[in-house]
Amino acid sequence: MILLNLLPHRETARKKKREQFVAAVVLAALLGVGISLLAFSSYQSAIHNQLAINAMLDTEILTLEKQIKDIKGLESQIEALQARQRTVEDVQSDRNQSVHLLSELAQQLPPGVLLTKVTQTEQLVLISGTAQSNEQVSELLRNLASASTWFSKPELLESAATTMTLPTKEQRALFNFSLRAVLMREPGAASTPLNAASAATPSI
Asked: Please, are residues 118 and 132 in contact by the beta-carbon 8 Å criterion?
């Protein structure tokens, strides 16, 4: 006896396969969404941490900038105090410069040389006088350059021959001269350049 299965078994099999496929697709989609959520959460956490680090760095930078400004302010104050100190020291040193100037000129002045005018502008000293010979003028320059501890950079500005009539009506040749030199604040200290003062020859 032959038995016939009249149930739509092929349709049932296809339906079952579709259901399995849909279930697999849904599961894959859920897994994808879950992985995406985990990745998004991880990225958000990393971004949040980086923003927190950036905020902390910004705060530290502001603190350092404030400290740098404070340090610069202190440096400016220190420089101002040092400038005041140097000014006070220069004033104290300059009090006795006139005494040292005249005393040193008296010591270094060769015989036969007469000074007629001595002027001082800051550290620059202008000297005018009369000598019996050019050799005496040269000797004065050498004394100021090598033997003096207070003068530096002596420079002859002018030396002109002239005659003087003595009471006996005798004519004697003389030399009018003018020179300049730098008077140092401390004896034997390194000389400072004349700068603009030496660039222009003053009128005497």
From this structure: no
Nearest by Cα to 142 from 181, 200, 183? 181
pLDDT, averaged per 10 consecutive residues of the chain (204 residues), comes to 59 82 89 90 90 92 90 88 81 70 87 89 89 90 87 89 76 88 72 40 36
Which residues are registered as beta bridge partners of 109?
Answer: none
C-alpha to C-alpha distance for 161 and 81, rounded to whole angstroms: 52
DSSP string, 112-134: TEEEEEEEEETTEEEEEEEESSH
Six-digit token pair at 201?
């020859």
For the entire predicted model, the pTM comes to 0.46
CATH of the domain at 165: 3.30.1360.100
The DSSP output letter for 186 is: S
DSSP structure string for 86-114 = HHHHHHHHHTTHHHHHHHHHHHHPPTTEE
Distance CA 187, CA 84 (A): 22
Q: Are residues 128 and 62 in the same domain?
A: no
Question: Residues 146, 133: contact at Cβ < 8 Å?
Answer: no
Q: Determine the pLDDT at residue 58.
A: 92
**Quick one: which of 137, 141, 140, 186 has its CA closest to 159?**
137
Indicate whether 204 belongs to any domain.
Answer: no
